[in-house]
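Before a colleague's protein record goes any further, I have to sign it off. What it holds is a sequence and that sequence's fold in C-alpha cell form. My question to you is simply how this chain folds and whether the C-alpha cells agree. Thanks in advance; the entry in question is below:
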Amino acid sequence: MSTTATTADTDSAPAPPQWLARHVAFMEHVAEVCSSPGGRSDLRTGQTRRGLAEPWLMLPHLQSRIPRGLRERKTAYLAVAAMFAAHAPSPTSATAKSASVYDAQRGNLGWSLNRAVHSGLLSQDTATELLQLMARQRRLAGLLQHLQPLVDRLAAAQIPLSWPHLLRDLTCWTRYRTAVADQWMSSHYDDTTDDTAEEHTA
C-alpha cells in the first residue's frame, strides 16, 4: 500500500481539516516509530487479538499519544497503528524517509474499495458484501476480524488508503457505527461524494 509522498509534494500539500488533525498527528507519530526496525516490529505485535489485548510492546511507543477514554477507542488506535506498521516501508528504504500519512485526495474506506473495484481487485458484488458484513458488526472487535484481512489485501495490491480517515472512523465505531458505515457505502458508490465532511465526532 502506498503510504509515501515526495518531499516536494509534502511541502505543498494542504493541511488536514481540523476534525482530522489529531488523527493525522497520531499517524505521523506512528510513521516515526516505524522508521526504526525495533519500533516497527513492536507495533506489528498488535496484528493479533492477543497482541491488542496485551499491547506491552506497543504502549511504550504510543501510550502518551492515545487519548484517554473508552477501552474500544484505545483498541482502535492500537489496531490502526499495527496495520500501518504491517505495511510500512522498510526503515532503511529511501521511501521511508519521505513518508507522509496524509493525502487530501484520499477518502475513507469506501473510497478505497471504490478504487479496488475499478482496478479489478474486487468485484462490485464482493465489495458490497464486505461493506454490508462490516456494517453489521456492532463491536469493534468484530469489525477488526473482517477489516484487517481486507486492509492486507488492499495493501498487497497497492490500493491507496487514508490511515487518518480509518483511525477516525474506528474510534467512532462504537457510538456512530451506522453513520460511519453509511459514509463508507456512499463513498464507495459515488465517485463525487465528499467524504471529508464531518458527520460524527470522535
Notes: Residues 163-189 form the longest helix (27 residues). Residues 23 and 164 are 5 Å apart (CA to CA).
